[in-house]
Request: fold
Amino acid sequence: ERVILAMEKRFAHGKWNVQPPYGYRMVEGLLVVEPAEAMVVRRLFTGYRGDGLGVKDLARELNAEGQRTRKGRVWHPSTLHRVLTNRAYLGRVAWRGQERAGTHEPLVGEDLFESVQQKLRARRQSPPRRLASENLLVGLARCGRCGGSMFVQRPGNAHKRQYRYYACARRVGDRSCGQPYVPAARLEGAVIGKLQELADHPARIRPFLAREIRSRSAGRQDLARRAAALDHEITDLDRRQREMVDWLAETLPGKAAARKLNEKIETMERKRKALAEERAALRSRLAAGDLTGVTAESVAGHLARFRDYFDRFNAGQRKELVDNVVQAVMVEGPARARVRFSLPTEPLGRFDRELESDPAGGSKYRVVWWPQRDSNPCFSLERATS
Reply:
């Protein structure tokens, strides 16, 4: 307990309590700048902000130059991300969830640090690059024969290349699959057409919604049990930490024992933080999985908004919209595919903006039910017969 009090006192005076971050070393209990490492830290911040480099690019540069971490390891993007988000470089100290100004010299300024954080946040929020594709089912379509991914090609001569086809990667690559080309417009049109049909017939959604509610109810029970187990683990961890501190306080430990205690406390604090974060994530999932008040009619209403959005969106934005309601498309041939939808239980309000696009064309496929032991509605697509 005396060690804890001493650490709290150091924090109150702006002193560092744990292992020094990269760029500093500990001298007589104080953080002191390590010039060679500090130069790397400043280079990372300025390179990320001004040179247009990402963490992968920066890691590649450092490793190519033979730069290594303090432990002699190669630089990884995750390691660089921790450096770029460490507020110690602003001259701040942290202890048990609290932060204050430290006594050590900052390595970067507030403006530089904040601009880097903004850029990191912007990159996290950016949509995947494939969303810019006009091909709605890329990343969702898989070959029903070999299980390989399918992408869009424009085979043939100049006249034929105006048409898009979904092709199995293994057919195009090592020719190990005999899956024929599937016309993209027909396949995409059938999927969109089925979504529009469901919006007009809520009764067809009802059995799948009931199954989803039952599935989520069972899942929520598992999540609740795991959250309760985490509560127990955190309580037990706190108890063990108190017992260890009490025992060491009674034995009047020397400097070596105090240092060992500090290391154990750091380990316990990291474990407790990880457990608390997992518990918070579980509680968030429990709240998000609550389908109270969701009806087939409300889902149909969301799908009706999907239809409105789709008619106004451009190609890339249509792709993003489809990714929100389609889980997978298993293509079994040029005239048959199976589709698994993830029907929206919440409004698609984030798409509510005016956008331009060409209206989607009609479909030459018809959609039939795909029996599947799954909580999501699934359908099959078959070529329509005249």
